[in-house]
Design a protein that fits this description.
By secondary structure, the protein is an alpha+beta fold. The chain has two domains: 1-70 and 269-285 and 293-304 and 347-384, no CATH class; 72-261 and 307-336, 3-Layer(aba) Sandwich (Replication Protein E1, Chain: A). The chain is built from eleven helices and twelve strands. Helix 1 packs antiparallel against helix 2, helix 1 (5-20) crosses helix 9 and helix 3 (72-83) runs antiparallel to helix 8. It is globular.
Length: 384
């Protein structure tokens, strides 16, 4: 039961929640996936031992990107592909955070403004990196959108892994000297200016959906006052120290790419009315906190982080942009003289992957101990 704690919350309280809270189609789909994951309602995989005849039934998982039980394999395969794209340079973790005053607009314009956040983060990093006084080259950037904080509140921010080296306009490699090459205040001011400029265009063109409660009355005066107040704020841009060895960058990013709002490991207890979970301290160095929420509130907070259908939370920029990535990496590896890492799991089936990564032999018969389990079939629909 340890890996199904979140499912327990839904089993206990989702029916009551859905009666009193409106949900988007994506949120309904996510809830049904969590409820049915590994229960037999999504079918099963049946295998039989060729030696002793023992039969095993394994209920299928939902594979929903918001389900905490279904991300481990995806994460390992993603990290393995990215390993082969790591270059010999420092790597940095940059975070762009939007002020909470924007939350109502963000939530009512998710696809539009999440895409804008991706765009402004990438343009800020690429334009400043191209300046010779900073790097004078095009780095590789992987961006991952997150919308939550440790207490599951709405907190929209972009995680970026940025290489400290890149390709110059004349086709050479240039690297930073250990520390991040763009000053934080330059980074945050440029990002703030870009985002608010584009946001204003969206508002003036009537594309931006403004909730009725956002202004007492929707007038240009109200909008301009609001916009000016955002220009006056310090927008939080965060840069983490370089990684200890460039191979660790992708392993580190794997923590963020396939995360959901909360993992089962953080949940301490679930009753039929309340869920208790752990959270980091409010500031670095503080001890962990314990948070208790009513189950319906826990479900509400979890579901506000379900992304719109079809929206990609991971994007690639710079020399990693999808159209030119293969050509760029070929050039970089040629110039640096080697490719440090290669994929480890390419071409492996699920049985070999499970054995390699988790040391689990799913072909081993629990009855006789021989590695002779063979797939019989995968019946779909409710099973059991």
């Amino acid at each position: 039961m340890n890996d199904l704690k979140i499912q327990q919350v839904w089993n206990d309280s989702y029916a009551d929640f859905s009666e009193h809270h409106p949900e988007s189609p994506e949120q309904v789909k996510t809830s049904h996936a969590i409820l049915n994951c590994k229960t037999g309602m999504l079918g099963a995989t049946i295998s039989q031992c060729a030696d002793c005849g023992h039969i095993e039934y394994h209920n299928n998982s939902c594979r929903n990107r918001n389900c905490p039980n279904c991300q481990a394999v995806k994460k390992e395969l993603w990290v393995d592909k990215r390993r082969a794209e790591v270059i010999d340079s420092p790597y940095f973790h940059v975070v762009f955070t939007l002020p909470h005053e924007l939350n109502p607009l963000l939530y009512h314009n998710q696809k539009l403004l999440y895409s804008l956040l991706h765009r402004c983060s990438a343009e800020t990093l690429l334009e400043l990196s191209a300046d010779k006084k900073y790097l004078g080259a095009t780095p590789g950037i992987i961006q991952v959108l997150h919308t939550w904080n440790q207490t599951l509140d709405y907190h929209v921010h972009m995680h970026c892994i940025v290489s400290g080296g890149g390709i110059t306009p004349d086709g050479k490699i240039r690297k930073s000297k250990g520390k991040f090459f763009i000053p934080v205040f330059v980074l945050q001011d440029k990002f703030k200016g870009k985002f608010l400029c584009h946001l204003n265009v969206l508002y003036q063109s009537g594309v931006l959906k403004v909730p009725l409660s956002f202004f007492k009355q929707e007038t240009s005066v109200c909008w301009n006052t609001f916009k000016d107040s955002l220009y006056q704020k310090d927008w939080c841009s965060y840069i983490k120290k370089t990684f200890n060895g460039f191979g660790n960058a992708i392993e580190y990013l794997g923590r963020y790419t396939h995360k959901v709002a909360i993992s089962n490991s953080r949940i301490i207890s679930v009753t039929d009315t309340h869920t208790t979970f752990s959270a980091r301290g409010r500031i670095p160095g503080d001890s962990r906190r314990t948070i208790t929420l009513r189950n319906e509130e826990f479900i509400r907070r979890f579901l506000i982080h379900v992304l719109p259908t079809g929206f990609q939370k991971i994007y690639y920029y710079g020399f990693l942009n999808n159209r030119m990535k293969s050509k760029n990496l070929k050039l970089i590896f040629k110039l640096q003289g080697y490719q440090k890492f290669k994929q480890r799991y390419a071409g492996l089936g699920m049985a070999d992957l499970m054995k390699r990564v988790w040391k689990k032999d799913i072909c081993c018969c629990p009855q006789c101990g021989h590695s002779t389990m063979r797939l019989l079939g995968r019946p779909h629909g409710a099973f059991g």
